[in-house]
Amino acid sequence: MKNRLRVLRAEQDWTQAALANHLDVSRQTVNAIETGKFDPALPLAFRIARLFDLKIEDIFDPDN
Amino acid sequence: MIDADSGDSPRMSFWEALNAGCGTAADRRNQYWFVGWCLTWALTLSGVSVYLETHSDLRGTGAWLLAGLPFVLSVGALLSYLRFLRNADELLRKIQVEGLAIGFGAGIVFTLGYQVLERVGAPEMSANDTVIIMMAGWMIGQLAATWHYR
Predict the structure, then answer these.
(1) Which of B11, B62, B82, B131 has the greatest number of beta carbons closer than 10 A?
(2) What does the alpha-carbon distance between residue A3 and residue A1 come to, in Å, rounded to a whole number?
(3) Residues facing A3 on adjacent strands
(4) What is the C-alpha separation between A39 and B95, in angstroms, rounded?
(5) Averaged over B58-86, what is the pLDDT?
(6) What angle do CA A28, A40, A16 make, to 5 degrees?
(7) How many Cα atoms sit within 13 Å of B109 on the Cβ side?
(8) pLDDT at position B21, please?
(9) What is the Cα–Cα distance from B46 to B39, expressed in whole angstroms?
């Protein structure tokens, strides 16, 4: 599944480690989501959406 | 300059992934507990085995209690691993589960397959060898999953 996490993180000028800290996950998790290797479960997807004040579908694109 | 942490590099190096793959601070704390329980269990198991071997005259309730002590500690180790797994970072949990699946699968496949080899003359395998294969499979599985999700 494609996502805009990398772009959103760059807009905030956050490192992967900083974003991981905000989400209470490991940096590897953030990296794996950004590269599309790993799709987060709903609770983490909601945490990401809330952090950027967006809807889940504004970040994750299920059609890709 | 390429800096994976800043997001300029799309993929982490394997060593970066291994380092970051230890999970959050809470994961590391839970891992320490698990390792602590495992070490306690292993030391107790070794100690009890040696003691029972050197005191072969020991019988009765005392001997049973002593022999049962490693089992009690193994429950603690198992529960600490379950606690770690249930609370682990999502990706770390996925890596662990893939590692366990590979370890379990390797153990079953090797054990059953080796029985056929024994019939044609391969050296007999002990139950301990199966455990070693499973542990090795678990470790290799974790490394392979870490590589995959880096």
Answers:
(1) B11
(2) 7
(3) A60
(4) 13
(5) 93
(6) 35
(7) 7
(8) 60
(9) 11
pLDDT tens digit sequence for B137-147: 999 999 999 98
Interface of B with A in 36-75 (CB under 8 A): none
Q: Is B98 on the interface with A (CB under 8 A)?
A: no
Question: B38: helix, coil or strand?
Answer: helix
Assign B66 to helix, strand or coil. helix
Assembly ipTM: 0.85
Kindly report the nearest CA distance between residue A25 and chain B, in angstroms: 6
Cα distance between residue A23 and residue B27, in whole Å = 14
Q: Cβ-count burial of B146 within 10 angstroms (0-12 exposed, 13-18 middle, 19+ buried)?
A: buried
User: Tens digits of per-residue pLDDT, B76-124?
Assistant: 999 999 999 999 999 999 999 999 999 999 999 998 999 899 999 888 8
Chain A residues lying within 8 Å of B24, measured CB to CB: 20, 24-26
Q: Per the CB < 8 Å rule, is B11 touching A34?
A: no
Q: Which 3-32 residues of chain B touch chain A by CB within 8 A?
A: 4-7, 10-12, 17, 20-24, 27
Q: Which two tokens stand for residue A23?
A: 């989400």
